[in-house]
Every structure is written in C-alpha cells, then in structure tokens.
Known about the structure:
- The complex is a heterotetramer of chains A (180), B (985), C (102) and D (416).
- Chain B is built from 25 helices and 51 strands.
- With 985 residues, chain B is an alpha+beta fold.
- In chain B, strands 8, 9, 12, 13, 14, 15 and 28 form a seven-stranded mixed beta sheet that branches. A six-stranded mixed beta sheet of chain B has the order 42-43-44-41-35-45.
- Chain B is elongated, with a radius of gyration of 38 Å.
- By secondary structure, chain D is α/β, with parallel strands linked by helices.
- Chain D starts with a helix and ends with a helix.
- Chains B and D meet through strand 6, helix 3, helix 4, helix 12 and helix 13 of B and helix 1, helix 3, helix 5, helix 7 and helix 9 of D.
- The structure holds flavin-adenine dinucleotide, nicotinamide-adenine-dinucleotide, flavin mononucleotide and zinc ion (ZN).
- Residues 6, 8-9, 62, 65-66, 68 of chain C line the site of zinc ion.
Amino acid sequence: MFEQAVNISLKKSDSFECKVIGEQLRYSIRMKQDFVEKAEKICGFNIPRNIGEVESYDKILCMCLGPDEWILIVQPKLKLQFDKIIARLNNSITISITNISDRNIGFKLKGKKVQKYINSGCPLDLALESFPIGKASRTVFESVPILLFRDGKLSFRVECWRSFGPYISDFFKRIADTND
Amino acid sequence: MKNFRSKKGSVINEEETIKFSFDGNEFSGFKGDTLSSALLANGIHLVGRSFKYHRPRGILSAGSEEPNAIITFDRGEGKITPNVRATTLEIFNRLQSFSQNSYPNLKFDIGAFNNVFSIFFPAGFYNKTFMWPKSFWDKVYEPFIRNLAGLGPAPLSEDTDNYASCYGHCETLIIGSGPAGIAAALAASQTEGRVILVDEQSEIGGSLLSSSNKKIDNLSSEQWLSKALNTLKKSNNVKLMTRTTAIGYWHDNFVALSERLTDHLSQVPEGSAREQLHRIRARRVILAQGAIERPLVFNGNDRPGIMLSNAAQTYLNKYGVRVGDNISVFTSHDSAYETAFEMCDAKVNVSVIIDLRKEVNADLLAEANSRGIEVHLNSSISRTYGKLRINAFEVYSPIQNKKFIVKCDALIMSGGWTPSLHLWSHSKGSIKWDKSISAYIPDKANENVCCIGACNGNFGIEKALNEGNSVFNNNKKYVVQEQSFGSGVVLNTIPNYLKKEKQKAFVDFQNDVTEKDISLAVQEGFKSIEHVKRYTTNGMATDQGKTSNLNALEIASREVGRSIEKVGLTTFRPPYTPTTFGTFVGYRDKELFDPVRKTPIDDWAVTNSAVFEPVGLWRRARFFPKNKENMDQAVARECKSTRDSLGIFDASTLGKIEIVGPDATKFMNLMYSTSWTSLKVGNCRYGLMLGEDGYIYDDGVVARIADDRYHVTTTTGGAPRVFRHMEDYLQTEFNDLDVWLTSTTEQWAVIALNGPHARDILEPLIKDIDLSADSFPHMSIREGNICGIPTRLFRVSFTGELGFEINVPSNYGLALWKILMTEGAKYRITPYGTETMHVLRAEKGYIIVGQDTDGTVTPFDAGLGWAVAKKKKDFVGMRSLKRKDLVNGVRKQLVGLLTEDPLTVLAEGSQIVINPKQPKPMKMLGHVTSSYWSECLGKSIAMAVIEDGFNLMGTDIYIPMPEDTIKAKVCKPIFYDPEGKRIHV
Amino acid sequence: MLLIHCPYCNKKRPEVEFAYAGEAHIERPNGINQLTMTDEEWSNFMFIRNNIRGEHAERWWHNSGCNMFFNAIRNTQTDKFIMTYKMGENLPTEKQIKAAKK
Amino acid sequence: MKFSAISLFANALSGHKKWPSQFPNKDPKKEYDVIIIGGGAHGLGAAYYLASKYGITNVAVLEKGWIGGGNTGRNTTIIRSNYLFDESAALYDHAVDLWDGLSQELNYNVMFSKRGVLMLAHNVHDVQSFKRHVYSNRLNDVDNQWLNPEECKEFCPPLDISSSRRYPVMGGALQMRAGTARHDSVAWGYARAASKLGVDIIQNCEVTGIRRDSLGNVAGVETAKGYLKSKKIGVSAAGNTSVVMEMAGLRFPLESYPLQALVSEPIKPVFPCVVMSNAVHAYISQSDKGELVIGAGTDQYTSYSQRGALHLQEHNLMSICEIFPIFKRMRMLRSWGGVVDVTPDRSPIVGKTPVGGLYVNCGWGTGGFKATPGAANMLAYTIKHNEPHKINAPFNLDRFIGGRLIDEAAAAAVAH
Ligand SMILES: Cc1cc2nc3c(=O)[nH]c(=O)nc-3n(C[C@H](O)[C@H](O)[C@H](O)COP(=O)(O)OP(=O)(O)OC[C@H]3O[C@@H](n4cnc5c(N)ncnc54)[C@H](O)[C@@H]3O)c2cc1C
Ligand SMILES: NC(=O)c1ccc[n+]([C@@H]2O[C@H](COP(=O)([O-])OP(=O)(O)OC[C@H]3O[C@@H](n4cnc5c(N)ncnc54)[C@H](O)[C@@H]3O)[C@@H](O)[C@H]2O)c1
Ligand SMILES: Cc1cc2nc3c(=O)[nH]c(=O)nc-3n(C[C@H](O)[C@H](O)[C@H](O)COP(=O)(O)O)c2cc1C
Ligand SMILES: [Zn+2]
C-alpha cells in the first residue's frame, strides 16, 4: 500500500545518479540541550550537540538541525524498538517527538558531477572543506527547502517535503539532460 | 571582391574557411573571426543605421562596447536574436545575419529622411510637440511615435533553446584575462584557494591578443601567453572560463557570470544549454577589466570607416585584417601612434596623423617620420566626406587658419582611455578623478575587491603584469619590452571653423546624441549629469555609454562651467552587457518554474478526469465532470449525491501543525481567540486566529491529541504564514513557554467522507474505534487503524452532513482512497472537488477565510463572536478588537442573501446598494462574498458582507448589474439544516 | 544576495535561506498592560517604526536553516551587516556596535 | 517660451539657441510662504498646484539631488485607478482625470498613453477578487472590465493563454483609460510650469533639520544651502519620509524597501498594453522608445541603498518568460532600484501631521506614480486650507489609531 510521491530514478551513470530512498521512519525531535544526555541514555546512541552534526549508524541517522532540533531517520525494521524508545522519551523528559515519516521524501545522489548538480540549485559552498563528509544542513534548492546530508565525497542525501519531490527529481533530470 | 586580410591574426585559423551571410549576401571568413572582422576582411564597413536619424553607420570598435554595428542574428524560427553586436558575434558556417533599422535596405533607407530634418528633433523635442489638437495624441501622434520605436525586430515565437543556472564559490574571482588578469591568476594559482578567471571573449589574453612586437620576460607576447595558459590549465585550483561575461556585482562579493555556450557553434548539440548563469560567491574579487578607448567628438565623426584606433589595431593583430588601404589617424593620445606604426609595418598606407595636441613626444614624431607619415600637430578635422563610407576629410588648423582635404578609406581615432569601472561601481566602490589620465579611477573599495591594470588606470603591459602579480604579494617582477603607453589630452571641444549649429558631432552613436544636444540640455536647465543623460538619452542605448559617457561628461562640464569631479558620473548598473532573459531564467522554466504541489491522491484525480485549480503552490481537484458535464452540472450532481448518500473529498492540502510541549495549551490560548483550556483530549474545536490587528487571520479545526499535544489544521493557502506567525510569537514574545511546532501538512493524507452513509462505509474498515454517535460524537478525534493503516480519525464536518476526516500517513493515502472508492460503490460514493465543498459549506454558512473575509473583517463582523474568548487575559489580536473604529464604527457584517428570483445566482464580488436608482458613484453597502446555485435547496444562495448587516435582516437590497438590477433579501447566513440535526446523527 | 551570519549556526549563509522579520526590540505589551494602553499607544506599538537610514536593529528568521529568529544590526544605507546576535540579548550599545565594525 | 510644433520649428531655424532654461536654478530666498521638501513629481506637482490653483507662488521646492531622481525617475510608470475601496478609487481616479489633459495644461508633453492595463487572474481567488474590483469600480464610475482568456489574448497578442502553463490565464481585469506616461517628463513638466509661476526649484539642497517655534509649529528648515524660513512645510520625500519626519520629532508608520525594475534592449513594437500579474509578481509594458519595462515586488528587507538582489531579478524574469515565453531571447539592458515607503495598509498618507504647519504626502509604496497629479493637488489643497480635501481626508494618520485602515493589500493582495 506504500506509495511515494516520486518513483522514478534517473538513469545510472558514472557522472550522476539519483535514486529515491524507500520507506523510512522519520521523527522530528525537539528538546532543550539540557535533556540531550538523558535522551542519549534512553536511545542508546549518541545525539549530536551542534547544528549540522550527524551521528550515523547502520540503520539510524540522527542529525542536529537547530539548537533544539533533531531529525531521526530510521530503517523501518526498527519500528517496534523505536516505538518503545519514543514512549520512554515522552515519559521521561520534556520533549516533542513528531512522526514525520511520510512528510519527507529522500533522494540519494551520487556520481562525479554530484556536487556541481546540487549547486545548480543550492547556494551553499559544497567544497569538502566547507561541507565535509558527515555534515548535514537544512538549506534550499531553488525555492524548495531541503535537508542536505553529505555521506561521501561524491554522495549526498537530500530530503524534502513529499510534494516537492517531483520538482526536485524533474530538476535533476533536466540538469542531467542538459549537461550530458 | 578585394581581400583585406594582411597577416595571420592571433586568434585566426586560416585552415578553416567559414561561409556566412550578411543581409542575404554570402561572404567568407576564417575560424576565429567575429562578424565584424570577417566583414572588414571583405571590405565592408557599412553595417547599420542609427536609431533616430537612420544615419549609415560602420564598425566603431572591436569589442562589447560597440554602439553601431548592431545586427540581427538569425538561427531560424524561435532563435532570432535582435541587437547583437557584430564585434562579439563569432562566425560559423551558414551563419545568417541582418542589418537593422533600415528600410527597404541598408544602402537606401527611407528612414534617413529623419536625418534631413534632424534639426527639428533635438534632445527632448517630443516634450515640446504633439500636444495639439489634444485628440490627435491618442489617435495620431502616439501611434506614430510608437511605430518608430525600437531597434531590432521583436520576437514572434517562443525561444526553443535551453538555459542553465548554477551557483559557484571560489576564493579568488578574476574578471578580465588581459596581462593583469593573467598575472593575478598565475600568482593566485600558487595559493591554496580556488581561482576562477573569466573573460567575455573567446580566448584568454585580452589586449595581449591585439598587440605585437612586445617581449615579456624575453619571450614574445604570444609565447609568453601560451606558456602562461599552459601553467594555468595545469593548476588544478584554477578554472578558466571564456565567453563568460561578469554581468553584475552584488552585495557580499556575489558576482553573476553569463556564459555563452552555443552561439558560436554551427552545430548545437541536442538539448545543450545556450547560456548558463553562474552565481559566484567569491572571497575576493580582482577586477582586471581593462580600459575602453574614447572616440573623438568632431563634425561627421560617425561615418562608416571611422573607427577607434585600438579597434583597428585589434583587427590587424588579432584577426589579421586591415581596416582600409589608405588610412589616416586623428588623435589626442599617443596610443594611436602605435596603431599607425603597426599599420605601416603591415604595409598599409598611413598618410597622415592629425593630432590635436601642440606637442608630442619627439620619439614618436621621429618614428612617424621614419615611416613617412605626415604628422599635423595642433590640427583638427572639421568635416568628413563620403556617403556610405568615409572617402576624405577636411583638416583644419586653427592657429594658421588653414584648411585642406585628405583622402582616405578609413580614419582611425583616439581620444584617450577610460578604465572600465562598471563592476567596481556595481560593488559600490567609490571613484576619483585622475587628472593625469583624464579619467575616473577606483578610490575606496566597499567589498573585498581590487582593480588592477588598465582598469585601475595603470596602462602598459609591464605595469599590468606587475600589478596583477603584486596582489598576492608575489615578489616576481615582470620585465616587458614595449613602447611606453604614453599619454594624451582630453579636449572638451574640438576646434572647428564651422558654427556649432552646422556641425554634427556625435557623442552617443547609437542614440544619435550630438554635442549640440548636450549643450542644448544644459542650456535648458538640465545641469546635473543625470539630467543630461535623461534629456538627451546619452548613454542609454544598448552599449550603456561605454564609449560615450566620458565624452558627454566633458562636454557637460564645459557647458555647465564646473569641473568634471563636481559634475560626476552617471550610475553604472548591471548588466555589464545586455544579457538574455533566458540566462536569468536558467533551468527554471516550464515544469521548473514554480513547483506544483500535488496531493497523494492526485494521480487518481488525474485518471478520473478531474479539473484542477491552483491554490497557492498546490493544485486541487475542482470538480470531477462525467459525460461532458460542465462545472455547474458536475457540482450539482456532486452536491446532491453527498447530501443524499456519500461524498468523498481529498482534503490533504489543509495545513497541519503539531504543537507539543507542557505549555501547549498556554501557547494555543495566546495564538487563538478561541479558548483551549476546557478542550478535552479526544475532542476537537473550531479555532479562530487573529492578526495582532484584530482581523481574522486564519481558521481551522484543532484536535487535542494529548494533554501536551495538539493537531492544528489551517487553511491550504494560509499554512506557511500561520506557521511563521506562530514560530515568530513563540520565539520572540512567548519564549518562556516549553512548546514546539512541527509542520505535519504533508505527513498526513486527509480524506473527508461526508453524507448519511459516512459511518456505514467506515464501520467495516475500522475495528479499533467505536464509531457510534454516543462514543464518537461530532467534533471529536480518535486514533486507531483503518484497513491496517494507522489513522487519526476526526469526526468533523464542513458540509453539515455526518462527516469524518481520515488522516493517514501520506504514503497510504492513495491506497486508502481506492479502497474507499471500492467499498463505497454500494453507497454510490461520489468524489467531489473544491467547488462542491464550497457550495456545501455555504449552504451551512461556514466561512472561507480569504473569500468571505478579506483582512478587514473581525470575528464579530463575521458572526463568529462566540469564537472570541471573553475571559482570556491575553491573545494575539485582543487589544486591537477594542480599538475605536472596530467597536463604534459602522461595520460590514456577514449575512446571507436570497434573491427575489430563486433562479438568479448572484455574481461573486457584485456590489450591494439600498437605492439602485442613485447616480454614480453609488453608495455601496458591501459585496457578495460567496454565491452558488444550491441543487439541494433548489434555489440560489449567497453570503455577503454589508454595512450594519445584522440589523438589516429581512431588508430588501439591490445588486445593480450591467444588464439589470437584482433584488434580494438579507437573511441569516445559514440555509440548510439550521438546527444541525444531520451533523449529529 | 546578502550573506548573513546566523548566530545560532555560527556561519555565514546566503540570504535565500532567511526571511526578514522587521524591526527588532519592539516589545509586545502583555495582556494586562494592553488594557491600560490608549488606542494611540497601541497603534504606536503595532505600526510605528524607526525605519532608520543607517544602523538598524532588525530581526531575521533562519527558516531554511536552523529555524531560529535572531537580531541584527545592519546599515540600511549600505545593506551591510554590522553584527547579529541571539534573540533575548539586549540591543547592543553604541560601543559594542563600534567594536563590531572593526 | 511656449512649447509647440511652431516654436520648435522656429527655434530649429535659429539653431535652438533661444530655448530658455526650463527651471532656472535659483539661490534660495530667506523665507517662503510654503516649502516643499522633495523634488519628485509629487512635490513639484504640489508646488505647481499651489501656484496655479491656490494662488500661493512664494514657494520653494527643495531637492537633495536632482529633480525627478527619486522614484519618479525609476518607476515602471503604470497608471491606473481601478482600486477596490471607494476612498482609493476616488483618489486614484481624481489623478487619472488630471493626467488626461496634463500635457496641455503644463504645455509639456508627458506622453500619457491610455493603452490599457490588463491585470491577469491566474487562480479562482484572483478571479473573485478582480471581479469584485470590476463591480465596485462600475458603481464608482471607474472604468474596468472583465475579459475572458481569449479576450485577454486578443487585447494582448503576445500573451500565452494555453492551459498547460504553470499559472494559466483565467481571465483579466482591463482598465482602458489606464496606461503609462513618460516619467521624467512629468517631473520636468511640473518643474517648468511651476517655475514659470514663480516657484523656486532648488536642487542639491538637502533638508537636514526642521525648526519649530515656541508653540511647536514649524518655523523653517535647515538645508545644505542655509536656514530657510517658512510657516508651512509640505513633505513629499517618498522613501526618505521617515528620515525627514524624524527631523520634526515625528515617527511614522512607514518602512522603506528596495524595489527594482529593469528594461530590455529596444525592439520594434510588439507589446501594445500594460500587463500585470500578481500571482507571479511581474508587470510589463513597452515604452515608446521600444524597450520592455519590467518590474516585480520589493526586496524583503528595509533599505535606502537603491539596489536590490539578483535573485529577485531572476524571479521577475522567470515570471515574465512564463507568461510571455517569446521574450526569453530578449536581453536585459539595465536594472536599477528605488526606495519605496510602505504603510501598514499599503495606502498612502496625505494630509496634516501632529505638528502645526507640517503636511505630508507619503506611503505610496510601490504605486504612487499613477497618483502623481492627484496626490500633488491634494497636498497643495491641504496646505492651502490647512484642512484636507474630502478626497484625501480618509488618508490621514488617525486611521492607524482607530483602525479604519484602507487595506487594498489585504483585500486583494494587489500591487501597483
Ligand atoms: C522600481 C519602481 C517601480 C515603480 N512602479 C510604479 C508603477 O508602475 N506605477 C506607479 O504608480 N508607481 C510606481 N512606483 C512608485 C512610484 O515611483 C512612487 O510612488 C512615486 O514616484 C513617488 O513620487 P514622489 O514624487 O513622491 O517621490 P520621489 O520621486 O522619490 O521624490 C521624492 C524626492 O524627495 C527627495 N528628498 C528626500 N529627502 C530629502 C531631503 N531631506 N531634502 C530634500 N529632498 C529630499 C528625494 O531626493 C526625491 O527626489 C514604482 C517605484 C519604483 C521604485
Ligand atoms: N591598445 C590597447 O589595447 C590598450 C588600451 C588600454 C590599455 N592597454 C594595455 O592593456 C594592458 C592592460 O591590460 P589589462 O589586463 O588591464 O586589460 P586588457 O584590456 O588586456 O584585458 C581586459 C579583459 O577584460 C575582459 N573583460 C572586461 N570586462 C569584462 C567582463 N565584465 N566580464 C568578462 N570579461 C571582461 C575583456 O574582454 C578583456 O579581455 C596593457 O598592455 C595596456 O597597455 C592596451
Ligand atoms: C520607464 C523607464 C525606462 C527606462 N529606459 C531606459 C533605457 O532605455 N535605457 C537606459 O539605459 N535606462 C533606462 N532607464 C533606466 C535609467 O537609466 C535609470 O537606471 C533609472 O532612472 C534609475 O536611475 P539610476 O540607475 O541612475 O540610479 C529607464 C527607466 C525607466 C523608469
Ligand atoms: Zn541558523
């Protein structure tokens, strides 16, 4: 029954590849920094303290987006486990956890031209020194707010609200068509 | 046809011959030629007609400063470009180009009639005429003037090319690749950071490409250039970009580059972009834009065959083209001597140099002498001859009062040099007047930027190189063998025995602004240089005064009697050269213009022939026509089925915000006029949100999910601003509250089921929620599962029928919709769109914010006073509701209207009066906000806001329409099931 | 496009990530104080702005970034930012502004 | 010297040497009956009407730079009067009445061109809102008509009305009497006509202070050219109003934003009218010289720098090319910015101030060029009578206190 906003993936090539990431659990987490330590204990993994930092594990990504804001992206397999974690968090600390699994859509972008292509619409400096591997940031791609996470020299993950998904994928399609 | 190719040009590939056409005539040139160099090689000077007087014009320059040689570049349907500078257009096989602004042809142009009467069209003439008789303006004069407008042809069909856009970053951005820019790039390549070197021309090299006989570090300038290029190409931190113009310089070192990718290609690869916009953020910008030569302003200076000395030099050295066989020189600057000598050395006959100066460096005179060139000092040119090209001129020596005629086929001129301060000025760097070179040079920087080389007033290759180098504190010193760049004078008047009225000395060639025009402007009181510009249009043509602004300034300063520094320059504005709209658009056209936001159920709507409407960025199904129904028919059917049985509606676009935290209720109480304290978990309430001004801002149903958790809904269009409004108050005013906001609009797909069978269809699908009226009454919410999908199920109704809004995670919305369509078949389930939704809610008198309210309506005006909590100590908008005019004034209030003839549907937006017979302007009471045919009631219904409406119940009012006046009665705005029985079943 | 230093991200970021949010340090009177305010005083709060030509205290929202509102001193004649600081911090003194310019 | 074809002819024969200065530069006198601060078309117009209609000729217009160099010289020149509310319709229509015949009145061709302004509707909300305007205008006797998409296309052939567009054209409101005028000429025409009637036009004369007497009323102004006495001062300083008002100790409900515009290279006539689209924030016309004149919305932050951001120009041209794809190959020739003063309800303030003898005309935001003659006349009237005319009476400062806003923006989200 699960159907995402975008299904297409761009043709695979050395220079650029764009794939839609399948079902994910996503939680928006808001709490004061004072509670982070406690939350870490309950979660059983590290929670980054500074904006732009990411803790990534095999099936879990935890990114700090604001002084009191995190997004947690988790493989669906861990649903039951996370149901419990969330219940415990809710009961133990002052926290706001909102399920936004279906709000976002994720893209995996990679290839030799990936940085150039993202820079077609994103105004951030994506040189490794300014946007190192393992960093994330909310920013924009043209008029669309996105979340950008670099997981490799030539590999990024982009998240946006689902209704903007087709625009993002159309955009990358046009870029690839125009440049190849 | 004679060939004017003299030697091998530095950018010319003689192996590759290229055929092209101009005005339908075939010519050939070489790879590397611009249209102008190729035309000159074929002996063609006449290429266009001027704007106002249609005077024959030739090629003035060899670069993007060209005012005269403006042509149309035609690549076929949808690819016709007007106003292209022949001096920058690179030729390719089968290139087609046309002259502009002439009819029937370039050589014989009827418009030249204007030239004969030019004395009647001085600057600003149109302000003085065309006023009588008054009626002639609209019908005769204005159409006439408008018909004369414009240069090149207007586009008639859609541009079929693609464009691209991107952002870029670097530590050093160098603009201009002459010796200064290259030296800076070489030095920068040794640093850590990224370097971008751009040049608008097809090759790197700037003036090095047009010079000869120079030695840099003991290499010929060609050798040095190719060595430097090699080094740069090998440095992996340097990016070289040719055919790339820096068009503008914005705040914080943000520079836009326009890269031309295909205009020079004969075969354009399928799909590739024609131009690309690069938006570069640089840590440091280095401007090495060079300098532009100034024409001399003398009588008859606009004849084809008269050109800038540096242009002639460039045609010779860069393209191997001599611009004539019998050349003369007119100058007030040493640099024209260099051109003359190089011409001579290339076996062109240079007969005379007319120099305005009394004295000239003896070495130059000796060199001229050795080449057999006559030099006339302290002389001037008083007239030129030749119909479509110069063939002679008259020399005038004011001291001796001597005149004589010299024959020529080209005249080259130099009035000195103007450093290119365009981008520097965009960046708001200040400028100062440098007497020694009679030009403005950069003064104080406003960004991390510097100017080097000719653009900083430092002429000469050696200076340029060393200045470029020194920017990076590099110790290297370049040594160049070159003729000294020399000096010159700038004269604000050129001696002539003819009276000024008898002269035509052009300052701005394209806009036909003469010296007289500038004098006239000043005489008429336009003393500021900005006024001179606007009154005469000097500097406003497609070259933006690159060759004319300084000359105009000199003349204006003379006329006003104030020094140049005091008169000042006009403002430089982007773009540096005219830039295609497509460049600014980049990728963002068609489907990439604005995103179209579609709901999870959109696909189904498409396959079921929905007609859509745009709402903000969203598109929503407006109605679902069946069998060629029109909108009214479809809506009537959708309404009826919903009330009779069951309707289904995609409400996914409603804004949603999850508000969570221990202070959630406190926050809600502050943000809404509604009170939330008593709302129990599991219940919903209508929330009314006001602006601080007390007017209705937004509304929506809010559910309390837990003590500390609210599920808020907003209007579709209002979602972004409501979120911002809340976040703003939370962070700046109520920041002591422990509560957080998360937008969940797109987390949930929302399917609304309305109608008597709404419960029947759900019952078999939901196991874990008791749907009975008692345990799940109207305005409540339950969490559970539907068909195994987790849901937040609202029992609410925007139709007045039994209603449910099923929220499920978006990725399951479509699947659930399809199930409901199948399951609903037995209830004749009917999908309906926004139009039906509007009718159904109007029958119940529910408002739509933005339609029934417009930002000037208070809750009380809208009859929603009950949604304003009386006891709350504070909420946004509370104080404003007590303002004088909101309490005492006559307010427009929301009422219902029933037309006298129930079949008449009022027009939305139509105006209401008490007395339809009054003369205009009529006193209007208000207007119809919503109006529909109600199929269920068998009559039309309407809502309206009218002055003092609550007191007018039962009164007759009138709606004057163009055809007739409609009578209606004011009533309560609720037409259907006023007791609300159906909603509670 | 301006480059704006966000005091929360502690980075300079492009203007398109931000939304301008009007003059800063205009404190909203609470409900109790509102009661004693005349219409004129209330309208001053709502509508009257310094609209300074020069150093202007204003708010920005890093909405496509860390989502935080913050304050800034910006010269409205040159559009140049002099400093940005977190919400809740006091209006900088002239001395602090001077120091920030260096 | 009277301007006419005949005088042009005669002067041509004498080498154009006899044209006098259109607005002689004067040294300021020590005292004036009225001082107008701001030599935009509004201020110059007010001086002209003071002298021509209200018999006050001892007037100075003080301009800090060159006359017409503010927003008058940088606007996209759209003139229309099809505003929604009675108050606005009356004010703007008064202006259009004066535009008609202004060239003859001033003996200066301001090229008021009634080529029609078409406002496009791209969604149902636009349709509702524009129709509301049409109906309201009709009863106010202001011309404005509704066109369906085909009629829009007929009126403006370059328009693309295909339904596949991102924002398809769902119709439009057309005011035939609306159009454009030559911006600079308006300033010069008023200046020349006012000068002739004895008004002193003093340029390069920035007002730096306003002095008040012991009763608190105005007494005069400090300027770059010394102190000038006057008991009546009219402020018409557009984007700089807050700065001037502050000199009199007043704070105003205004914010000043950059607004940009641009022109293309000139091309042969192709665009017969003015088109505005609020959904995509763009408007366009073709000037009598042939360039396309294009504008958009304001930048987001307050500024006095007369420059704006590149991304607004990008978006502006994206919008233009979306509605008129044939223009994508056209080229931008020049872009620039102005500083517009915006009120909370987007309607102007024209009338008295809390300081005796101080009058104001401001807050025209992105759309005051069209009002020039009307605003100028109302300011002059108010100065003369020390009372507003009934047309400008609603546009007072008090409305922000009581709450009787004239909220055209909230009502329709319409610019210009
Ligand atoms: C890009 C742009 C597009 C626009 N498009 C339109 C449009 O299409 N239609 C429309 O109707 N309107 C439009 N407008 C708005 C319109 O331009 C203005 O509302 C109108 O021109 C204001 O005229 P004004 O005479 O009041 O102001 P201005 O022409 O700005 O005159 C004010 C003058 O006051 C002077 N001044 C300021 N301070 C002082 C001081 N201390 N001492 C002395 N002098 C001072 C200034 O130098 C200036 O010359 C646009 C504006 C801009 C910027
Ligand atoms: N006779 C002449 O050609 C002449 C005139 C003046 C100076 N000079 C000589 O020029 C040298 C100084 O060299 P320089 O490096 O300062 O200038 P340059 O003229 O050699 O180079 C300037 C370069 O900048 C490019 N340019 C200008 N504006 C641009 C823009 N907006 N975008 C992209 N490219 C742009 C031009 O195409 C040109 O190639 C000296 O040799 C001096 O004697 C020569
Ligand atoms: C309606 C209109 C048409 C214009 N047409 C031209 C034009 O054809 N060429 C040009 O260079 N500038 C044109 N301009 C712009 C002016 O040159 C100038 O940029 C504007 O008056 C702002 O002044 P500034 O750039 O000196 O600050 C036009 C301006 C307006 C308002
Ligand atoms: Zn931030």
